UniProtKB/TrEMBL annotation:
Highest taxon above the source species: Bacteria
Domain Peptidase M16 C-terminal: 185-358
Transmembrane regions: none
The protein's name: Zn-dependent peptidase
Cross-referenced Pfam families: Peptidase_M16_C (PF05193)
InterPro entries in the record: Metalloenz_LuxS/M16 (IPR011249), MPP/UQCRC_Complex (IPR050361), Peptidase_M16_C (IPR007863)
Residues forming coiled coils: none
Length: 425
């Protein structure tokens, strides 16, 4: 059975994860920086990785960094941001050819890692902190990134739903930061925050590829000399409270298609025993094309252009998303609620359960077939403090009974109905 071959060691101030496999001709490196999501730091943190990849002490511009990547047989380097539960994650990813497949005897592994270390550890600085021209350029790009959410009505509705569900909690913050905080950031304040990140963040460094004969640990210790930090074992996400009253929020904009997003709380998170049952529940409720939402809201009633649900497992949320005509709002809300009632009443058969389990299984096996997917799965274990093997996961899904699904369906509680409609509607 597929199980991620995973070796984990403490390496100074970071945790090193090695996934030895000869399945790929490339080596994938993923570096994750994890800290609590807070209003005070969300915008600086969202800006930081983009500033770091735009120039180092040795390669002073993003063009110079790209040129160096090309010299490394077309290596790629990218950054990303994610919100996982109560944490704000910065990610640096690098892919480069495995030197075993190159004709020349070039220590490409160390060269590539030296460039990544340069980006993370040796940024281009000016008189006061980071290079100010890089910071100003990235601030402009960041404002565009935040504004682009407004133009994508599905993402915008999702953001607004989350803000309404968590008005006074960090989870209500957007991963890209707050536009009204961007101008306050200076090259000095961002550099001060960067030093804090290097000193305090929980850092995980993943390698996926054929690592035989490479002294990974020694190279990492040399290139990433982070100071030891205090254990964060107790830091986990606080699941969304179930003590809420159902509320409705409507907004108008100049749009042609209404966006109906509904946020439910389940009280079941990634580390819980009921996690598998909640996954199967979500698959049958709205996660797949054979689900109740897809069949009844979209196909049977023709009320929605799309209708689906997703499970945010760290916070324990189920988010339903649909695109509808403005006049169908009340009827669609009613039918979505009816699908939850149907799940609670056990209005599903063995065949639907079996089909859902098969699709979850296929999704999982597809994910572990990909280097980045493997890292993503393992990192869920870091964030939740609960590491599952693929075997456990597959067995857990397979073992879910109808009673298990009814038990979690009973916990699911509607929190907020958010509707973005046209101005004339």
């Amino acid at each position: 059975m597929a199980i991620i071959p995973h070796e984990k060691t403490s390496c100074g101030g970071l945790t090193l994860h090695r996934i030895q496999t000869d399945k790929y001709k490339t080596t994938t490196v993923v570096m994750q920086f994890k800290a609590k999501l807070t209003k005070d730091t969300v915008t600086e943190r969202a800006l930081l990785p983009y500033v770091l990849q735009s120039g180092t002490a040795q390669y002073g511009s993003s063009k110079a960094v790209r040129t160096e990547l090309e010299k490394l047989y077309g290596a790629t380097l990218g950054v990303d941001l994610a919100k996982k539960g109560d944490f704000h994650i910065m990610t640096f990813r690098m892919d480069f050819a495995n030197e075993k497949f190159l004709s020349e005897d070039d220590p490409l592994f160390k060269k590539a890692l030296t460039l990544l270390a340069d980006v993370v550890m040796n940024p281009k600085t000016g008189n006061s902190g980071f290079d100010s021209s890089i910071v100003e350029k990235e601030k402009r790009t960041m404002k565009q990134r935040i504004e682009s959410i407004y133009d994508d009505k599905m993402r915008y509705s999702n953001m607004r739903l989350t803000q309404e569900m968590f008005p006074d909690e960090p989870f209500g913050l957007h991963v890209f930061g707050e536009s009204d905080q961007v101008d306050q950031i200076t090259s000095q304040s961002l550099y001060d925050y960067y030093k804090k990140v290097c000193a305090e963040d929980e850092v995980d460094l993943y390698f996926v590829g054929n690592l035989e004969g490479i002294e990974v640990e020694n190279i990492v210790k040399e290139l990433f000399p982070f100071d030891e930090r205090s254990s964060r074992e107790s830091e986990t996400t606080v699941k969304a409270s179930l003590d809420v009253e159902e509320k409705e929020v409507q907004e108008s904009q100049e749009i042609k298609q209404g966006k109906l997003h509904m946020g439910f709380r389940s009280g079941v998170g990634y580390a819980d025993d009921e996690y598998y049952a909640l996954q199967v529940f979500n698959g049958m409720f709205g996660g797949f094309s054979h689900s109740k939402l897809f069949r009844n809201v979209r196909e049977k009633e023709s009320l929605a252009y799309y209708a689906a649900s997703r499970y945010e497992s760290h916070k324990g949320l189920i988010i339903v998303m649909s695109g509808i005509e403005f006049k169908n709002y009340s009827k669609t809300v009613e039918i979505i609620k009816e699908q939850l009632t149907a799940m609670r009443n056990g209005d599903f058969n063995e065949e639907e359960m079996k089909q859902t389990k098969t699709m979850i299984r296929n999704q999982l096996l597809e994910t572990v077939d990909d280097a980045k997917g493997m890292v993503e799965l393992l990192y869920h274990g870091v964030v939740s403090r609960k590491l599952r093997s693929i075997e456990e996961w597959l067995d857990g899904i397979e073992a879910v009974t109808k009673e298990d699904i009814l038990a979690v369906a009973d916990k699911v509680k509607l929190d907020t109905v958010y509707f973005l409609k046209g101005e004339e509607a």
